[in-house]
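Write out the bound-state structure for FE2/S2 (inorganic) cluster.
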Amino acid sequence: MTKSNLLKSHPLNSPFAKAPIVRLQGQPVLLFTQQHSSLLQALEAKKVRIFSECRSGFCGACKTRIISGSVSYLTEPLAELNADECLPCCCIPSEDLELDLSPEGAAVVTYSCGNRRAQTPSTRKTGNLKAVPQQEVVED
Ligand code: FES
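---
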């Protein structure tokens, strides 16, 4: 099965499936959607620092520990893996996923609360403790 066929036939591509949330050490960093071609590409798009070389499941350079959740492989990984590890260059999340990667420098998805925009996601940068200012809510 080709990579694009696997992506099309993946259960998460059902119109009723929930896009998996990818967390790094507890911090929600991204919602994995059909826009992403692999977990590595999605993490790099969010400025997550992750080492890679072959980008095809051969070298093991991108090997990452899974804290919770599971992945599906786009191509058979050739690098040796433990049961709690994945190769982000050639897999996609099968469900919500938490990885043992530092969220430092990545845009983390947060939710403001205590106002009418409680469900409006915003982002903040981690690592420098400077929060991106959230919009003020003006009461009528
Ligand atoms: S970069 Fe080589 S296995 Fe992922």
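---
The domain at 1-8+18-126 is CATH 3.10.20.30 (Ubiquitin-like (UB roll)).
The pocket of FE2/S2 (inorganic) cluster is lined by residues 52-55, 57-62, 79, 87, 89 (CB under 6 Å).
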